[in-house]
Amino acid sequence: MATYDDLVSRVKQQLLGYTRDQASVSYLTAPMGASDTTFTVDTDTITNISRGLVEIDGEMILVKSKDRDTGIVTVLAGTNGRGVESTTASSHAANAIVTSDPRYPKARIMEAINDTINGVYPDLWVFGEVEFPWISARYEYPLPAEVERVYKVTSNTIGPSAVWFPNSSWRFNPQASTTPGQTFPTPAPTGKSLQVMRDFIVPGRNVRVIYIKPPTTLTDLDDDFSTTGFPDRYIDMIVYGACWRLIPAYEAARLQQTAIEATERAELVPTGSASKASQYYYNLYQTRLDEERDRLLSLYETYQTFNG
Fold first, then answer.
1. Is pLDDT of 23 > 50?
2. The whole model's pTM is what?
3. Which of 16, 36, 59, 190 has a 20 to 30 A CA-CA distance from 301?
């Protein structure tokens, strides 16, 4: 199963290639605390670390100076130099890779992945399910707060057939009362409810609500992709979408005409190359999004089809 970290690696490989980008890296030779203002790296590779930004496990750190003999690197401005560029200061284990001025910081890649996961909704959605017993004197029932839209409602019939009968007399209320009372004695109200008419439901039998909810974004690098609620089949689509979102930033770097790299690469990489690459990934992303949306709609019948 693919993890968040696997997705980050796949996006980075798409952006940088497999062999052509040789980042300047070293590694920690001792653990580093979340509030430390110095850290120790391998003395043989410390020359790869320069003053400015370095990345360790997704945290961006400002470097002030380094000691080649001891491998000690000093953080600029004390703790103010930790967790810069909207990253979080955290602890790092020995042997963690230290990358000098990464072209695509891991934190930005992680953001682009989650932005893409959020962006595919409502074209692609995740199903949720909840059941509750039908009470003859009760008309309205609370639903989980994550419910965005009710897909269909069924109720359990009596007898040995165990058939779940489709219900047609119901209404989703996305602005239900949140005040506890006779309407919602238990469980607590969530602001979303289902209003169900009798519709031949036998009291005491369960009502099952299939609803639509947004995907869940990823948090920790060891989170499995299934945490989103999406199948692994969507991974390539998410990777393409993240690349499409990240590549335009590389075009903006060309505007820094005082940079040596921008000047040297100007003739080799024409203006607009990054925009064209971004459009290429957008087309791949959009093609996969269309494919998966069509597949989702064909696999899961609409309420009208289900009732028919």
1. yes
2. 0.87
3. 190
